[in-house]
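Course exercise 7: structure representation. Students receive a sequence record and must write out the corresponding structure in token form. The form below is the worked example handed out in class, using Fungal lipase-type domain-containing protein (536 residues). Read each field label carefully; the graders check that inputs and outputs are placed in the correct fields and that the protein name is recorded exactly as given.

STUDENT ID: A-19
EXERCISE PROTEIN: Fungal lipase-type domain-containing protein
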Amino acid sequence: MVALKQQQPAAGGPKMGAEKLIIRTEKVRFIDILSMLFLRRPITSYPFVEAGDQTAADFGSTPGDWFVALTQLIQKALAGAYYPALMIGAVVEFLLNFIALNNGILGIFLNIFRCKLVIPLNREAPNFRSMIAMIDGRTELKPLPAGGGPDDQRLQVVGVSAGGGGKDDYYVDVESGECGSASVPLLQQQYVNGRLIRLRTFSVFEVTVMAAKIAYENAAYIENVVKNVWKFNFVGFYSCWNKFVGEHTTQAFVMTDKASDASVVVVSFRGTEPFNMRDWSTDVNLSWLGMADMGHVHVGFLKALGLQEEDGKDAARAFPKDAPNAAAGKPLAYYKLREVVRDQLAKHPGATLVVTGHSLGGALAAIFPALLALHGEQDVLDRLLAVVTYGQPRVGDKVFADFLRARLRVEMLRVVYRYDVVPRVPFDAPPVAEYAHGGTCVYFDGWYRGAAIPGGGDAPNPNYFDPRFLLSMYGNAWGDLFKGAFLWAKEGRDYREGAVSLLYRAAGLLVPGLASHSPRDYVNAVRLGSIAAKEA
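STUDENT ANSWER:
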């Protein structure tokens, strides 16, 4: 998104707001897509584009490039598939749950004979699993090895040695007050003097990746896992309203490690649901809104958190600090979660805050603390321990990335697995949409060898469609399918994949990078991966 210029708007130009570019995909015609490709008309001249007066002046005669046209084509296809995908998804999830709850095909016939057939009609039941949980049904947290040091195989930073060298010195608990220091750089935010930050007996990475994974499930399922499997304290599940869509589109849950005297409050946002084409369309949408010091921010993600007006001139009007009056049963995500976090931090004076999410949930996890900073919620931000996202799409421009770096006391960590398609959208299409990642990218290859890319650096093939990476992407898709079938032989039964997971990996042979978006590989990376990083 172009930098704000101090000049008067062009005479006769639109007067809708200083800095915004909203593309109304529902108004785009196929002939408009052809026009963008071949006639090269100014992007702001199309009737489906709403530009702020300053934006129109900055763009002038700038045409939409092929990334803009491609995005509209993708969104049109996703819109056409919306209802069929929802129906297919409902049928697939019903059948998979029907088979699973009756212990397989043979179990179905046995249960018919026994008159004990289980029919999963209640999607809100604690034993009903989404497609994500069918791909990866693991729910247990993996504790850190008691010995630490060389015995710890999960997400180590190569070359960062244990402080003091003793077993008792390897980890540092969040209760100690040593962690979350602004002086700890980049990836080592998760470490203090070479010791891994520990939430009870689990690493921050383990807790965040599993919380991001189970956020896809229904409220009863999440509560059951948090309380009965993890033995944490479940605070609540929140399904929040999007006034622009007219539906509850945003879900998140909050937990603490203990019911009293907790050391950490965790907020986890639900991500892009596999059969929800609206979620996928939001991920690729190029539209953005000027948000004052925050820079230009993806308008779809702002709407999911509770945006009030598409006002690119007055951020206080677009996203006011004080919570708007919400109708009963229609909470707004940012305001509701801010209230819950405030209450939990007040209830647990020694607690710190962790925010996480996968996919679209990662985008919301990145914007949530940015809005807290915009609104001056310093009491909350002073207790921020970590922001860790997995497979997160781009959410803003370089100004937004710099805003996060300047205003948060910790460096955001953005984990990317291989050619995962979602971190490579929305496309960086300057000058129309100059999207840029922020924080430190923790990039893993197919065998979970990691590298830290600081300063908002991108993973390879940042805009996905670079033909130079085509052979590598398809090769990696075959490699992931092979690894999924045989990884268990090396790493044990926890890494054995079922038919649903392998079929999902096979989809990567058609659309490389799609299967890499599964939370399964992010969990595996956290548990098996290592990262080559320089010591500060």
